[in-house]
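FIELD: query
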Amino acid sequence: MTQRQLAASAGLPQSTVARIESGRLQPRWETMTRLLHATGHSLEISTAGAGIDRSQILAMLRLTPRQRLETASADARGLGELLERAGRGHRTP
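FIELD: result
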């Protein structure tokens, strides 16, 4: 979905979507809800349970969207490598 398509579906200017995506604008709750709805998603807010390390959550929130994406990509690659290694160890000759 392009920024223009998302903006049209959410009833927002394309420039607003671009500023949110680049991290130059923090969307209001209503705007975020409209964007999520436009993509077929929703957000549920609940209280965090015991044992949650909030410092890691806060550290991730301090990153830019690009940094979060790069971190997620690196984590996914690492997980893929781990699963691949685990699969090799469980194969029968």
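FIELD: remark
The chain has five helices and no strands.
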